[in-house]
Amino acid sequence: MSSTTPEPRKPAQANSDASFDTLYAARKKLYVRAVTGLFANWRWALVWFTQLLFYGLPWLSWNDRQAVLFHLTERKFYIFGWVFWPQDVFFLAILLIISAYALFFFTAVAGRLWCGYACPQTVYTEIFMWIEQKIEGDHVRRQKLDQAPMSVGKAVRRGSKFAAWGLVALWTGFTFVAYFSPLDELLASLLTFGFGPWELFWILFYSGFTYLFAGVLREQVCKYMCPYARFQAVMFDPDTLVITYDEERGEPRGTRKKNIDPRSVGKGDCIDCGICVQVCPTGIDIRDGLQYECIGCAACIDACDQVMDKMNYPRGLIRYSTENALKKHWGRKEILLHVLRPRTLIYGAVLVLVSLAFVWGLAARDPLRVDIIRDRSSLGREIEGGFIENVYQLQVMNMTEAPRAFQLAVSGMPGVRIGGVERVEVPAASTQAVTLQVLVPYDEGVPGANTIAFRITAEDNPALSVNEETTFLIPR
């Protein structure tokens, strides 16, 4: 232990600027520069594809209903020709497992592809930034507009941008709710503004967060709020394709005239223009190495390739590559050969097996289900004619979108029969409850529980049949 006694600390001033600086990093607003190129085209193709799906699916009809509707009130999920019930929650679990393994697989192969191209945060930020660019101008004009004093022109531009963002956000919230409440009912409510309390809440909630995340927070969501940015490194290895800066080729960086051989002036290919930083939606410098803030959008690749073209240098100073490829100077062939490695093979195999199980489950899914509940309030009792009677409640679920009639039969004990209705009609995609009295001669069976079986068969398709066992109680 040291013999010197440290000086006592001075009490911190809670309201001092210095104390806040040590806890929070001040946000520097980014003025992202627009970029064109191969990866920008891919990104916009995914924007169009995902948004056409999202905004368009509620408008599609199927069998005189909404094609995709997760009807919470009816507790049914309609997805084109399929109708899913609460009993089908198993399929949701399998779908979540598939999504998780797909994320693991693609991350192990090529990094944050989801974040860079299909994540809703990326997609809506792209849309909002495009609106901002069309109204306020490019990154230089936007910065000047922010620095300029308030004027009529500035107020008009800002107001127009905020209004456009608000309309997109509101329509996004409306579309989101249309997946859970029928669109025709929502449209009727829209004309009179007669939304139910929960519909109005979720429209405003989803709209508000779309506006907040895509218009205000932007890169802050990816850097500080998204958990994927924190655990992605667990799925990376030296053979994962990520966006990399070829330091060996690019350094030492510096300016020079066009068409000058960089080696002749003691420099690398990087001219230190900074455009790769200007186009980055999270504001990082990829030349500092791989960082958790990088969402893998590849905007810096497009920007750097354009600069290399102007300087008549080879493309690829910033490119998709791997840690091993940079160290060992691998070409594309060697990189692709190392895609198949134990980690990706395991992820891929599990993904394929679970996907096949999901498809098989959907294909083998029984369109008829029956739940049988014996009436516990009235145990087996003796009735006129020398019979023992048990009462049952049958829930017949017709999971198809055509009305069907079903014949009911019972077996399992000598002389057992149904006393009363032996036929039930069930509307399309509906459940029909029916109460049955089952009779057994008094001298048959043994006191206590006896096993019987109900058979429910569709009249128009005898192959569509279900057998369900239950117990028949005979008083002791």
From TrEMBL:
Keywords: 4Fe-4S, Electron transport, Iron, Iron-sulfur, Membrane, Metal-binding, Transmembrane, Transmembrane helix, Transport
Span of domain 4Fe-4S ferredoxin-type: 261-289
Protein's UniProt keywords contain Nucleotide-binding: no
Ranges annotated as spanning the membrane: 30-57, 77-104, 162-180, 200-217, 345-363
A Pfam match: Fer4_5
Gene3D superfamilies, per database record: 3.30.70.20, Immunoglobulins
PROSITE patterns to which the protein is assigned, alphabetical: 4FE4S_FER_1, 4FE4S_FER_2
Entry keyword Transmembrane: yes
Record's protein name: Cytochrome c oxidase accessory protein CcoG
Organism expressing this protein natively: Thauera mechernichensis
Lineage, uppermost ranks: Bacteria, Pseudomonadati, Pseudomonadota, Betaproteobacteria, Rhodocyclales
